[in-house]
Structures are given as C-alpha cells and as structure tokens.
Amino acid sequence: MSESSGASGGLRVAEIQGRGRAMVASQPIKPGQIILQESPILLYPNAVSRVSGSLTFCSHCFRRIDPPHAETPRCPSCSHHALFCSLACRTAALCSSHSSWVCETLTRLRSSPPPNQDLQTQANFLIAAFNLSVVSPSDFQKLLSLQGEASPNAEAATLHSLLSAISPNFASLSPELTAGLLAKDKQNAFGLMEPAGDGDRSVRAYGIYPTASFFNHDCLPNACRFDYVDGSGTRNTDIIVRAIHDIAEGREACLSYFPVNWSYKDRQKRLMEDYGFECGCDRCRVESHWKDEEEGEDAGMEEDVDEEMEESEGEEDVGQDDTDFPHAYFFVRYLCDKEGCGGTLAPLPPSQGTASNVMECNVCGQLRRDMDAHDGEEEEMSVC
C-alpha cells in the first residue's frame, strides 16, 4: 500500500494492490464520525425527473421549490425551464452552471432531444462538463483524472453528433473525449436522491465529487453516505460520509454502491455493468455458494437471524469470518427496519468526543435508539 494524496476527516487516499486508489483510515475512526464532507465540482439534472415538464427544484442547487409561483426567480432566457430557489442561486447559476451558452444549448436540445431519457441525462452531463472546462479548468482536470477508461460505443457517437449539430462549441470536443467523459461519469457520479416515498426512490440530479470517488465498494460497508439536498444552508448538495462502526487505523473505509439488502446476483450484475468488476468481498464469497432458493431469500433474511446475531454479538469487524451467514449481525443492527426502505443506519456524529446512541437511516431519515446501547430495547424517534 502506498500513500497518495491527502483527504480530510481521518482518511488518506492510498493505493491498494488489486483495488486501486482507496480511502484508508489515517487514525482510529469512531461510529458516526464524519469522515468526508465534500462539495461537487459538477451537478446536472436527471432527465427522468423532468418528464412531467414541470420543474419543482432549483436549477442550480436542486433544492425543492414547492410549489413554484409568480415570484419564483427564473432564468431570463428560458424562464419556463429554469427556476431557482433564491435570487442568490440565480445569480450564481448565470455566472457558472447556467451560463448563456448552457441556456442556449439546453433550449436547442429540447427542440431536438435524444431518442431516450438515458441519453438525455448523458447529454445534460456532457453540457455541464463542457461548461466546467470553461468556467473552472482546474475542476475539469480533476474530472479527467478520475477512474474510467473510454471505449468506442454507439451512445457516445450519437451524443457527440447530436451536440455538435446543436452547438458549434462542441466541435472542440472530439468523439474520443466524449466517450472518455461518459466513462468518468458512469463510474464516479453520485445520485442526489428524492426523499423516500411510497415507491422507488428516484434520482433528482447527479454530482461528481472527486475525493468521494475514491471510496471502493463493499457489500458489508463500514461507512455510508448521507445527502440533505432539501436542507437549509449553502452546502445542501454536499456529500457527507459517516462511519457505521469503528474503523481501525490503516483499514480501508468502504461504501456500498447500492442498498445492502440486494441479492448476490443483483449486486454482481450491477457492479459488472456499471463498474466493470466482480465483487469478491467476504459476503460475496459466502453467498456465491448458496443455492438459488437461499439466495432469493436474501432481501428478507433479517427477520430470521436472531440466533446468528447472538453468535456475532460484539464483533466489530463484521463479515470477516466465512460463516454461513456473515452478515446477520450487520442486517439486524444497521439495516433500516422501515418497510420498503432498504437504507443503512449510522450513528449521528459524536458530540464532544462522546459517541451518539441515536442511529439515522441514510434513505428515509428515521432516527432510532441504538438497540445495543439500550439492552436490546429499540425506541423510534421523530425525525428532526
């Protein structure tokens, strides 16, 4: 392992053989500790969230505007398509993320849209990336430095042809660079999610966070991300990563790239399609030997793990033993029990060096007492 560049919150970026660049604890990390808070260098909307044609979020910070009204600040050139939550956001956007060139390009794109919504979202990314190269060349270089190798593909060719026809500025963006940027986006973008509702959570927008991109995946993560896009303040699009449990100095800090209760087959399929690798973590090594009917019960198994949980009680290094059920304890303690949620629980940040006994779900926001800290008694709390 060789140390690379630095990172805040008790982490450093290091090279790990077989895993590439990774986030490693530079000191002992406590449960709930914020190990990274980072602002995005690039944000762009998910086309699916605009299908209805009625925007309900700010075109700069993506905070919800509910409901828009006559006094809602709007773009002077495309007032029906770009709304802002405040005059400050509009002023900032017109100088950066929604410059006159971006506004004109997006307007033309609406007149000649890509054939499907996925390509529309990718077009939104390419427009934002090209604009980034103009307004912040240093951040554009950070984007280019991220993981993601280009390969010729029909989608990149289609988007390059479409955008070059819409705007002459894209003549300087070669087909190879277009494909390269799309590869960076695919492997490094984080979704800014809509609040949990009755159905599947949808992605409101996507963001590129250079340091957060160094987090590797594990199917039993020791950290999880939170976002508070509808929160107050000027950093509502920050990504916040908190430790789920203790992380020893020198140990890698990992996220799960999707809900931890996904089945083995679904996890492997997503990782191969989106990130190009097969997961060989301790949990996957065990589940790869399960029969199909056992693996199919994966999402609901937290209901039947009391015995395994007792055997695992007190283990901080969850998932390191090749047992028949290495993730039993993790599911009981750190998986949100709200029906249909699938979120991960992490303690609230420590206060004055004292660990919190309140767990927060990173999907639905539910707060509950840590049952281990209260002799197994769970008390749900109202969300602040």
Task: Describe what this molecule looks like in 3D.
The chain is of the alpha+beta class and 384 residues long. The protein is 29% helix and 16% strand. It has 11 helices and 15 strands. It has helices at 87-94, 100-111, 117-135, 137-145, 154-166, 175-188, 264-275, 282-287, 292-295, 306-312, 328-334; strands at 2-6, 11-16, 20-25, 34-38, 42-45, 189-193, 203-208, 216-217, 223-226, 239-243, 254-255, 345-347, 358-361, 367-369, 380-381. Strands 12-13-14-15 form a 4-stranded antiparallel sheet, with no helix packed on it. A 3-stranded antiparallel sheet has the order 1-2-3, with no helix packed on it. It has a 3-stranded antiparallel sheet with strand order 4-10-9, with no helix packed on it. Helix 2 (100-111) runs antiparallel to helix 3 (117-135), helix 3 (117-135) packs across helix 4 and helix 3 crosses helix 6. The longest helix has 19 residues, at 117-135. It is globular and about 60 Å long. The two termini are 41 Å apart. Residues 1-6, 299-323 and 374-384 have low confidence and may be disordered.
Q: Give the count of helical stretches.
A: 11
Secondary structure category? alpha+beta
What's the oligomerization state? single chain
State the order of secondary-structure elements, H for helix, E for strand: EEEEEHHHHHHEEEEEEHHHHHEEEE
Q: DSSP strand (E) fraction?
A: 15-25%
Average residue pLDDT: 84
Low-confidence stretches: 1-6, 299-323, 374-384
**Separation of termini?**
41 Å
Radius of gyration: 22 Å
Q: Major sheet: order of its strands?
A: 12-13-14-15
DSSP summary, beta strand count: 15
How much helicity do the residues have?
Answer: 25-40%
Largest sheet: 4 strands, antiparallel
Shape: globular
